[in-house]
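idk why but the lab printer keeps eating my pages so im just putting this in chat instead. protein + nicotinamide-adenine-dinucleotide:
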Amino acid sequence: MSKTVLITGGSRGIGRCAVKAFANNGYNVAFTYLNSEEKAEKLATECSAFAIKADASNSKDVSNAVDLTIKKFSKIDILVNNAGIDEFCLFTDITDEKWHKMIDTNLSSAFYASRSVLKDMIKRQDGVIINISSMWGEVGASCEVHYSVSKAGLIGLTKALAKEVGPSNIRVNCVSPGVIDTDMNAHLTNEDIEQLKNDTPLGKIGTCEDVCNAILFLASDKASFVTGQVLGVNGGYII
Ligand code: NAD
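predcted complex ->
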C-alpha cells in the first residue's frame, strides 16, 4: 500500500517541488495552499495529488485538511510542515501584527498540523514529521529576527517532540535550507546573489530539488534511525 504524505504550502517553491518528488516516488500526495487555487488544482492534476485550500496559521483549517486527507487516503504517514513566509524588517519596526503573523504562519502552523496528524500516528505507532526550518533559525539573521525566531522555534519543536513520540515509533526531523532559488528570494538583487554564492563554500545557491532530496531521505525508511535532527542543506554557508 502506498504511503501518504501531507505537505503544507504546496503550490509553489519547495512545497511544489516536494509534491512532484513524492508523487514521482509513488506516494499518495495531499497538499495545502492558501490562495492560488488555479495553480494548485493544475499541480494536483499533473501529479494526481489532492489539493486542499487551508490557511496553515488557522488551527481549524489545518485540522480540516488533516481530516480530509485521512478520509481520502485512509491515513497520513508523513507530514511536511513547509508553509512559510519571510520578511526583511528592522527589529524596532516589527509591529505586534507582523510578529504574530510570522509566528502563526511559520511556527504555530507546525504545532497545529503535527498535533492533528499525531492522534492517528500514535494510534498506528508509525509516522514521520519533517519541519522546514532555515539556517537563520540556527544562527540568526539581522533584520529578520521574527523569521529567525520562528525557525529556531521549529528546531526546538522538532527536538522536544522527537523525544516525546519516539517511543511511539514516530520520527521528527528538520530540514534547514540555506539560500534556495525560490520566489521567497525574488527580492534579492543579482549582486546579493553573487555575494551569497561567494560566501558559500560550494560557490552556488541551492535548488528546490536539493531541499526535496533531503526531505525524501528523511521521509524514507533509509532514515529509520534518524530522529530529532537538523539536516542542513546550505552548501556549507553555515558549518
Ligand atoms: P515560497 O514563498 O515560494 O513558498 C512558500 C509557500 O508557503 C507558498 O506556497 C505559500 O503560499 C505558502 N504559504 C505561506 N503562508 C501560508 C499560509 N498561511 N497557509 C498556507 N500556505 C502558506 O518559499 P519557499 O522558498 O518555497 O519556502 C518554503 C519553506 O522553506 C518556507 O518555510 C521557508 O521559510 C523555507 N525556507 C526557504 C528558504 C529559501 O531560501 N527559499 C531558505 C530556508 C527556508
